[in-house]
């Protein structure tokens, strides 16, 4: 048993016994930080509010924008389980990704597993009434379809 076994990783514990029978058994186990998938709780013409499940009180969450090519740009680090992204454009599509990290006392930053990217469309700035043209709708659909193909088949 290692004192580092409170951090993510793979570990083992060996138990040996002597009595009427002698022997031993090794138990293997893993500690990991689970995936975080945000959900959209509010959308306006210039903001999106995201929330996610809290896996552990010591986790730090990093929120990212994801562009059409899959490149991620960090928005912020937060210890909260929700965040409002402001300064967005009306009637624009945005992709967001959240990753959990554990900044451990041993000085190592452990990265959580990958969750899913969420996609949202901000509202129009004409009082909240969504007025989408068929071209805008089709463009958004094609972009999402291309993104899904990239996820399934790679580049």
Provide a quick synopsis of the model.
The protein has 155 residues and is mainly β. 13% of the residues lie in helices and 43% in strands.
Account of the protein in words:
The mean pLDDT is 82. The protein is 13% helix and 43% strand. It is mostly beta strands.
How many E strands? 10
What's the tally of helices? 1
Helical coverage, percent range: 10-25%
Unreliable spans are none
Class from secondary-structure proportions? mainly beta
Shape assignment: elongated
Percent of residues in β-strands? 35-45%
- CA gyration radius, whole angstroms: 22 Å
Please specify the SSE layout and strand pairing.
Blueprint: E1 9-17, E2 23-31, E3 39-43, E4 47-51, E5 59-66, E6 72-78, E7 82-86, E8 93-103, E9 109-111, E10 118-121, H1 134-153
Core attributes:
single chain, 155 residues, 43% strand
